[in-house]
Every structure is written in structure tokens, then in C-alpha cells.
């Protein structure tokens, strides 16, 4: 049997360098693998060829979280950071805890934008990384 427990946003904790991000509003991460059909005799494929893995995603954080990261770097440039990002799904009802570790994460872009009426600035930052260690 397996549990069909659904995790909510309030169950998620994300940390970078041992610091839990309080000002995170979204996280997304993807693992991809190159695949293609291998053809031989006839019209139908005979197998599937597999290639390299790639990893990408994005993190949305408050401007204050970004500024704290900038202050923590010697170069004052978050694009120079490399870190592990830990995503933990910790249900309040005591269900199973799931932790994914994204290794060697780096931001690829920082774009600040705010408009009239906004109450705070949320910055969406694309990431790339080298591996996911799932369900740690």
C-alpha cells in the first residue's frame, strides 16, 4: 500500500546554505533526460535511445531575501553563488517527510520588477543544478 497524502504549500520548507527561506513564494524544479526513438527495419521504432540528464527550475523570493544573499557574497553578486538547495515537505499531521536535495545550484538570471500597487517585490530567479537527490 502507499499513502496518497497531498502536501500543501504550508508543508514546504526551503533552505539555502542552512538558512530556511522565509520569503519564498514559489519553487519549481525539473529533471529532463534526452530520449529518442531508434528506428531500424520497418515503420515502428525498435527501442529508445537515452542521452544526458539536465536540471533546471526557478525560485521566487522576496527582494529582502535576495538582498540578504547579495550581502553574504564577497562579490555582491548572487550569480557567483553555488549551493545546495534543500526542499523538505513536512506535513503538520505527522505524515511522511520527503526531502529533495538539489546539488550545485546556481542562479542564471536576476530580474527586478515592481509596479504601482504592489505591496512587495517578488523576484523570480531561474536556476540550474547538477543533480537531484530525491527522498533523502
Instruction: Give a count of the beta strands, DSSP E runs of length 2 or more.
Output: 8
What's the CATH class label?
Answer: Mainly Beta
Distance between the termini: 20 Å
CATH architecture: Roll
The H-level CATH homologous superfamily, spelled out, is Hcp1-like
The CATH topology, please? Pnp Oxidase, Chain A
- Biggest sheet overview: 8 strands, antiparallel
Radius of gyration: 19 Å
Helix content: under 10%
Q: What are the segments in which pLDDT stays under 50 over at least 5 consecutive residues?
A: none
Write the element-wise H/E pattern from the N-terminal end onward. Answer: EEEEHEEEE
What would your notes on this structure say?
The chain has 136 residues and is mainly β. It has a single domain (11-34, 46-133), classed as Hcp1-like (Pnp Oxidase, Chain A, Roll), CATH 2.30.110.20. The chain is 7% helix and 50% strand. The protein has one helix and eight strands, in the order E-E-E-E-H-E-E-E-E. The chain has one helix at residues 63-72, and strands at residues 12-16, 19-20, 24-39, 45-62, 83-89, 98-107, 122-128, 131-133. Strands 1, 2, 3, 4, 5, 6, 7 and 8 form an eight-stranded antiparallel sheet that branches. It is globular. The two termini are 20 Å apart.
Describe the secondary structure blueprint for this structure:
Elements: E1 12-16, E2 19-20, E3 24-39, E4 45-62, H1 63-72, E5 83-89, E6 98-107, E7 122-128, E8 131-133
Antiparallel strand pairs: 1-2, 1-5, 3-4, 4-7, 5-6, 6-7, 6-8
Amino acid at each position: 500500500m502507499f499513502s496518497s497524502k497531498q502536501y500543501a504549500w504550508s508543508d514546504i520548507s526551503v533552505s539555502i546554505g542552512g538558512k530556511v527561506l522565509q520569503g519564498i513564494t514559489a519553487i519549481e524544479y525539473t529533471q529532463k533526460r534526452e530520449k529518442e526513438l531508434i528506428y531500424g527495419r520497418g515503420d515502428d521504432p525498435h527501442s529508445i535511445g537515452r542521452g544526458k540528464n539536465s536540471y533546471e527550475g526557478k525560485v521566487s523570493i522576496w527582494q529582502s531575501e535576495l538582498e540578504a544573499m547579495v550581502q553574504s557574497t564577497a562579490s555582491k553578486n548572487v550569480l557567483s553563488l553555488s549551493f545546495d538547495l534543500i526542499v523538505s515537505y513536512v506535513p503538520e499531521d505527522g505524515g511522511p517527510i520527503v526531502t529533495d536535495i538539489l546539488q550545485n545550484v546556481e542562479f542564471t538570471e536576476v530580474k527586478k520588477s515592481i509596479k504601482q500597487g504592489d505591496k512587495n517585490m517578488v523576484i523570480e530567479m531561474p536556476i540550474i543544478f547538477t543533480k537531484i537527490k530525491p527522498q533523502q
